[in-house]
Write a structure and sequence with these properties.
The protein has helices spanning 21-33, 42-51, 54-62, 86-92, 98-109, 125-138, 140-151, 153-197, 268-280, 284-293, 300-306, 311-323, 342-357; strands at residues 2-6, 15-17, 210-212, 217-221, 226-228, 235-239, 248-250, 257-261, 327-332, 335-340. The protein contains 13 helices and ten strands. The chain is of the alpha/beta class. α5 runs antiparallel to α7 and α7 (140-151) crosses α8. 38% of the residues are buried. Residues 266-358 form the HTH arsR-type domain.
Length: 358
């Protein structure tokens, strides 16, 4: 599956690159509350839990659905204006129309992809029940948050912005000073590429992205299938450090398309190698060979004798393990001894997670 963005009617002036602190703050909150698949954010997450502000941690879990798998659209740039101060960005949320805030918030809570029309929630009891029921199928806490936002969006927005200001002050500001220069470097580099290549530069966002024609379009490898037609509002590219390993695409009528991405994505060659390793290990005999050579290297003949196999059979298994870079081979005299590459096995989980989460 993929996200397909049609760029047939766009030129280089329609694509902007922004650094956005509010987007990065939401990505950091996601990494803190969904830390199991964000190894890059492990240090800051451990710091947050070490300093133990229980009230702030509790609120970060309460608002977690807003920056979960379907991050709320208002955390992404709404205009093509570059921002730097996160507190100003948070204050600008007060300018949102309450119906727009409610729609964006409840869409994220109920895991409704951006672009799905949830209408005027406050004026449609049947629709309210439908989205709250959908949220409750994920978690009752989500249904509760959705109901509170629908019932009193002004109070909900006040509570959210107050929480975000606290996060910015206590967790985010110092982190933003650290990562912002890197994002600025990426912005400058990507802008030069767009100037040289035009909309085709979008194909470089991911190593697995594909450019096609008739119509001119870019397909980005994602878990869900989305087709984004040409938009007169243009496309905003937002590099993010803590978003890794995700790629987020937001599209809604009347707003620019936003592509938030990791400027240093996972090594897809390594990811491909991991998938080959999993295929090789889908054989109990090869797993047993790994166990055997984990502590002591053995030759082909020794392994064949220990495992009661013919040497040619063992040689085929060792060749598969060697091609997957799971075992090492060291010549000692007239024998080649095979040992386990423990680090190769340790990285399988990390690479598999990156492969699944993109």
């Amino acid at each position: 599956m993929s996200v397909t963005i049609v760029i047939d009617q766009l030129d280089k002036r329609d694509i902007r690159v922004l650094t956005n602190p509010l987007t990065e703050l939401a990505a950091l909150l996601h990494a803190i509350t969904h830390g199991e698949h964000h190894p890059r954010s492990r240090t800051v997450r451990e710091h947050v839990y070490r300093i133990r502000n229980d009230d702030l941690l509790a609120h970060s879990l309460y608002y977690r659905p807003l920056y979960g798998a379907y991050i709320a659209r208002f955390f992404m740039p709404l205009t093509a204006v570059d921002k730097w101060d996160v507190h100003e960005e948070i204050d600008s949320l007060h300018e949102l129309d309450l119906d727009v805030f409610t729609k964006h918030a409840v869409s994220a809570i109920a895991d409704l992809p951006t672009g799905d029309h949830v209408g005027e929630l406050r004026d449609d009891p049947a629709l309210q029940k439908s989205v709250i029921d959908r949220a409750s199928r994920i978690a009752q806490a989500r249904a509760k948050l959705a109901g509170e936002i629908i019932e009193n969006p002004h109070q909900a927005l006040e509570g959210l912005t107050g929480f975000l200001h606290q996060v910015a002050t206590r967790w985010f500001n110092q982190e933003w000073e650290r990562v912002a220069p890197r994002l600025q470097t990426e912005k400058a580099s990507r802008e030069r590429q767009i100037l040289a290549e035009g909309p085709s530069a979008l194909a470089d966002i991911l190593p697995t992205a594909e450019e096609s024609f008739n119509p001119h379009r870019i397909s980005l490898d994602k878990l869900n299938h989305i087709y984004v037609p040409p938009r007169s509002e243009g496309i905003l590219l937002v590099p993010s450090h803590h978003l890794s390993p995700h790629l987020t695409v937001k599209h809604e009528e009347g707003l620019p398309v936003v592509v938030a991405y990791d400027p240093t994505p996972a090594d897809y060659e390594a990811s491909s190698l991991t998938m080959r390793r999993l295929a090789v290990l889908n054989d109990p005999t090869r797993v047993e060979i790994c166990r055997t050579v984990m502590r002591t290297p053995y030759s082909t003949l020794d392994l064949a004798e220990r495992m009661r196999m013919k040497p040619p059979q063992m040689a085929r298994h060792l060749r598969a393990l060697r091609e997957a870079e799971l075992v090492t081979a060291e010549r000692r005299g007239k024998y080649v001894l095979y040992g386990l590459d423990a680090r190769a096995l340790e990285t399988i989980g990390e690479q598999l997670m990156s492969h699944l989460q993109r």
